[in-house]
Write a structure and sequence with these properties.
Blueprint lengths: L1 E2 L2 H10 L3 E5 L18 H4 L3 H4 L2 H6 L1 H12 L10 H11 L3 E6 L5 H5 L6 E3 L2 E8 L5 E3 H9 L14 E5 L8 H13 L2 E5 L11 H7 L4 E5 L10 E4 L2 H9 L6
Parallel strand pairs: 1-10, 2-3, 2-8, 3-4, 8-9, 9-10
Antiparallel strand pairs: 5-6, 5-7
Bound molecules: nicotinamide-adenine-dinucleotide and zinc ion (ZN).
Length: 254
């Protein structure tokens, strides 16, 4: 591992023309959305929460689905706002250097901050929509949550009566192959890969790092704790909402 100072990280960004960025749960903790595995993580505080996003448990246990819908009603994602870290990535886009932003997050905060949809890959889906597990129906999550508020504890699909869920990739489900391709293409063609707020332990998205490294592309990691790839990257430790504005703001266009 090489420990980078802010100046070093900034000159790496300044010298690059095509930057691919990968973000994980850590970029949204300062917006009030807990990560999964940290001390205040969701799974640490509510062991059942992991099952809410496991497809086998979800499909086979109606009681679990009732709790999952109640959890969705109180999900901090519903009221969260983008923070300075999300906004710094919009500044990076405005500099013309952002090739693609791949996120493992499902909170929609990159879009809310102003990242262009055509540059964003939400590899694990999003919570803005609900989908049917039996047919192709999909609709705004807000409308399905209204049904829950109105008394439907486990609302069924209006087309086929199938089981509804959020439009996120559950454990036991495959990622959209088009999203995986976008992520891998970005890693293979960027001239700098920046990884933010991820343990880099969740595949296939984490595969972006070895793809970039095999091509000799530099990797910059900014994270509060160690990651799986610290030994091969330039690493900056600390808070993303504090560090990213310093790294990405005021970049000149290349
Ligand atoms: P993770 O929880 O495994 O790791 C998050 C990392 O971010 C940790 O290493 C932590 O130290 C670091 N971190 C937390 N807050 C930080 C901050 N303010 N500044 C700097 N670093 C910070 O998350 P992951 O590796 O991204 O993956 C877990 C999975 O959980 C992903 O698949 C993701 O889809 C999902 N998830 C998403 C959200 C969300 O959408 N906001 C929230 C929780 C989990
Ligand atoms: Zn259906």
């Amino acid at each position: 591992m090489t420990s980078a100072g802010i100046g070093q990280a900034r000159s790496l960004v300044q010298g690059a023309q095509r930057i691919a960025v990968l973000t994980g749960a850590g970029i949204s903790t300062d917006s009030g959305i807990p990560d999964f595995r940290g001390p205040k993580g969701l799974w640490t505080r509510d062991p059942d929460a992991e099952k809410y996003s496991s497809i086998d448990f979800y499909l086979s246990d109606p009681e679990l689905r009732v709790r999952a819908w109640q959890f969705r009603l109180s999900n901090p994602v519903l009221v969260a706002q983008p923070n300075a870290g999300h906004r710094a990535l919009v500044a990076l886009e405005h500099s013309g250097k952002l090739q693609r932003l791949v996120t493992q997050n499902i909170d929609g905060l990159h879009l809310a901050a102003g990242t262009s949809p055509e540059l964003l890959t939400e590899a694990h889906g999003n919570t803005r929509e609900a989908v049917c597990t039996a047919c192709t129906w999909r609709g705004p999550m807000s409308e399905t949550l209204d049904r829950v508020r109105a008394g439907e504890a486990d609302p069924a699909c209006s087309e086929c009566s199938g089981i509804l869920k959020s439009a996120t990739v559950f454990f036991g489900q495959s990622l959209d192959p088009a999203c995986v391709q976008e992520a891998f293409d970005a890693a293979a063609t960027c001239d700098l890969l920046v990884c933010l707020g991820s343990t880099l332990a969740v595949y296939p998205v984490a595969e972006m790092v070895p793809i970039a490294l095999r091509r000799g592309t530099p990797v910059l990691i900014v994270n509060a704790e160690r990651t799986e790839f610290d030994e091969s990257a330039l690493v900056l430790r600390g808070s993303l909402s504090e560090l990213l504005p310093e790294i990405f703001s005021g970049l000149s266009e290349s």
